[in-house]
């Protein structure tokens, strides 16, 4: 990662120490690698991104694995991932079904992620430095869901509202909660994680609530009319 420059934030606050204690198991590593779109992309995850050091939560790969662990095991009955149930259960399935090409790049230092999909496009999700070093573990799970929703065929369809921290008047918002776009999927997951998340901490659940409300208040052209 010679061309990337980053600072590792407090890993107790972001949850990387908490989840990092679980992911350093070859069974988990193999499952995440083969399930969530990493497989076949070794060239994007080596050279400093962590392929050769998959337990090191200072590096992008392990920090992504932490998000995969949260996605996979946060429902109390995580074995049930039926779409008829709560999103806390099926979000991992949705990401698994829609994310089959996950790549790591430096980005500009602040970019989070981007989904590419369409005719004559190599369908993929790219993760950038902001994903690993500006977001906590629940926020990274939210991003994987968000970008997978784009891969599932839902682009943003509105401009951000006045006062939005994401850039008032700029494109990239969803029109309404009922549009069921990427912002709604991310916020809904954070809501469920806050309400019923298992194998986590109360501090991370609270951080998920705060992030969910930030999305609800800033990412919809028409405010949904509620908060978490």
Produce a short descriptive summary.
The chain is mainly α and 228 residues long. The protein has ten helices and five strands.
Describe the structure.
The protein is mainly alpha-helical and 228 residues long. It has one domain (14-217). The protein contains ten helices and five strands, in the order ααααααβββααββαα. The strands form two sheets. A three-stranded mixed β-sheet has the order 1-3-2. A two-stranded antiparallel ribbon has the order 4-5. Strand 2 and strand 3 form a beta hairpin. It starts with 10 loop residues before the first helix and ends in a 10-residue tail after the last helix.
What key attributes describe this structure?
228 residues, globular, three-stranded mixed β-sheet, mainly alpha, two-stranded antiparallel sheet
Question: How do the strands and helices of this protein lay out in sequence?
Answer:
Blueprint: H1 11-14, H2 16-23, H3 26-35, H4 42-45, H5 60-73, H6 87-98, E1 102-104, E2 113-116, E3 124-127, H7 129-133, H8 137-151, E4 158-159, E5 171-173, H9 182-196, H10 202-218
Helix pairs in contact: 2-5, 5-8, 6-8, 8-9, 9-10
* Number of beta-strand segments: 5
Radius of gyration: 17 Å
Q: Quaternary state, please? A: single chain
Helical/strand content category = mainly alpha
The helix content, as a percent range, equals 40-55%
Distance between the termini: 38 Å
Overall 3D shape: globular
Mean pLDDT: 96
Poorly predicted ranges = none
Main sheet strand line-up: 1-3-2
Main beta sheet: 3 strands, mixed
What fraction strand? 5-15%
Number of helices: 10
**Pattern of helices and strands:** HHHHHHEEEHHEEHH
Number of domains: 1
């Amino acid at each position: 990662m010679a061309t990337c420059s980053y600072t590792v934030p407090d890993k107790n606050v972001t949850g990387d120490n908490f989840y990092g204690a679980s992911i350093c198991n070859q069974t988990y590593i193999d499952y995440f690698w083969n399930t969530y779109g990493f497989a076949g992309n070794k060239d994007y995850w080596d050279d400093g991104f962590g392929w050769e050091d998959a337990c090191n939560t200072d590096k992008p790969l392990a920090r992504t694995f932490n998000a995969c662990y949260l996605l996979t095991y946060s429902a109390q009955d995580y074995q049930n991932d039926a779409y008829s149930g709560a999103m806390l259960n099926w979000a991992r399935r949705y990401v698994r079904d829609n994310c089959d090409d996950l790549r790591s790049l430096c980005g500009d230092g602040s970019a989070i992620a981007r989904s590419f999909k369409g005719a004559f496009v190599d369908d993929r999700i790219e993760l950038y430095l902001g994903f690993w070093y500006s977001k906590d573990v629940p926020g990274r799970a939210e991003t994987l869901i968000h970008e997978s929703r784009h891969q599932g065929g839902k682009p943003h369809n509105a401009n951000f509202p006045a006062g939005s921290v994401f850039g008032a008047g700029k494109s990239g918002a969803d029109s309404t909660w009922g549009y069921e776009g990427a912002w709604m999927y991310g916020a809904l997951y954070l809501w469920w994680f806050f309400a019923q998340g298992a194998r986590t901490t109360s501090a991370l659940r609270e951080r998920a609530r705060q992030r969910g409300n930030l999305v609800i208040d800033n990412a919809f052209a028409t405010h949904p009319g509620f908060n978490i």
